[in-house]
Amino acid sequence: MSLSLSLLCIILIPLAAAGLALIHQGLGRSRSAAHAMLATLCSLGITAIVFVLIGAAWAGVPGGLAHTFLLAGKHFDWIGAEPFFAGGLRSNLLHSPYAVLVLALQIFAVGLASLIPISAGSDRWRLGSICAANALFAAVIFPLFAHWVWGNGWLAQLPTLFGLPTFTDAGGAAVIQVIGGLTALSVAWILGPRQGKYADHVAAAIPGHNIVLVLFGCILALIGWIGLDTAASILFYGANAVQVVVVVINATLSASAGGLAAVLITHLRYSKPDASLSANGWVAGLVAGSAGCGLLSPLATVFIGLVAGALVTFLVETLELHLFIDDPGGAISIHLGAGLWGLLAFGLFGPAAGPRGALLLAQLIGIATLLGVMFPLIHISYSLLNRLIPFRVDADGDWQGMDIRELGAGAYPEFVVHSDEFIPR
């Protein structure tokens, strides 16, 4: 029954990808809308193929084969050792349907994570380099951390190694959201801002071109997130029927709290609610709630969502106005900022069998690993790849738009899409 339910939930996950795609293209310029959507399709296709052929071997499954190293008398499980090129798929179909479901979930998980940096690179990241970067992401970066958390790697073995509770990421707040957010930060740094964004060292407003699609994307994201959180909770944390219902309730509560918090904060600060920031708050609530899913109480989930929604409004402003990081869709604030908050919040509010400090320390070890190990790995890898396959489109392409420059046709051929020509070049 649980495996059948997992499969049903996995089928819902592409709706989260569709939601994020609509949000990303809607918050970017109209002259790059088709490019953003095509990049989404290409990323989902490339990550699926590369992950099945290469990455799944590194990610592994709980109880599967793995490489370990000995340190201070303890064995650290650091990467999977399953067959490449889906070599074990046929036997798993007969003998281990659980392993096949894990593979199906991770195919969509790596695809979802690969979409996050596309938002940060909107309007200037070339399609060819997007494809190359996401192939690298699916082959090495995602599988490595996924194994540590979901493949019974060393972060899942903290009780054995250090006598601490396990690092908990029930719905992918770390494996998908923070890893995607760190990649988005690296991409934004490598690409630099869009032309005219920081003329005379002042941030110019470049509003999204279709807020209706952005808000519709939020609804699709909720459905997909429910599928993702439920499937991951069942497959990796053994969620029972009651906890599955709580996962659905908590996903709805976290999104609602995040969205409403952003509506309230922007209304108080700007006299009127900001629709794009409110959409960011909705997704930030989903992201933060993914860490605990059905393991948290509804009251704790509402609080976590409220903080995430409020936090993202300030993070977007800080990155754009003070750190001069151009992130058109707010991906860094949503997925990195809210994801880290969700992981920390589980240490504060999650069920603790022992001392609360031990659970919090386990979550902090996971956060430190993300920031101290995974981000340097991502940024160095992407910086080297940028030397081989330049990420940024040329100056004329930046101004002309990615649709015309790379696809040869605009998304809206019957409409004038250069409404921001007043922005200095």
Topology:
Layout: H1 2-12, H2 14-27, H3 33-59, E1 66-71, E2 74-80, H4 89-95, H5 97-120, H6 127-150, H7 158-162, H8 173-191, H9 211-237, H10 241-270, H11 275-289, H12 298-322, H13 331-349, H14 356-388, H15 395-400, H16 402-407
Antiparallel strand pairs: 1-2
Helix pairs in contact: 1-5, 1-9, 2-3, 2-5, 2-9, 3-5, 3-6, 4-5, 5-6, 5-8, 5-9, 6-14, 8-13, 8-14, 9-10, 9-11, 10-11, 10-12, 11-12, 11-13, 12-13, 13-14
Quick synopsis:
With 425 residues, the chain is mainly alpha-helical.
Description:
This protein has a single domain, classed as Orthogonal Bundle (Ammonium transporter fold), CATH 1.10.3430.10. The chain contains 16 helices and 2 strands. Strands 1-2 form a two-stranded antiparallel sheet. The longest helix has 33 residues, at 356-388. It is mainly α. The protein is globular and about 60 Å long. Helices cover 69% and strands 3% of the residues. The mean pLDDT is 92.
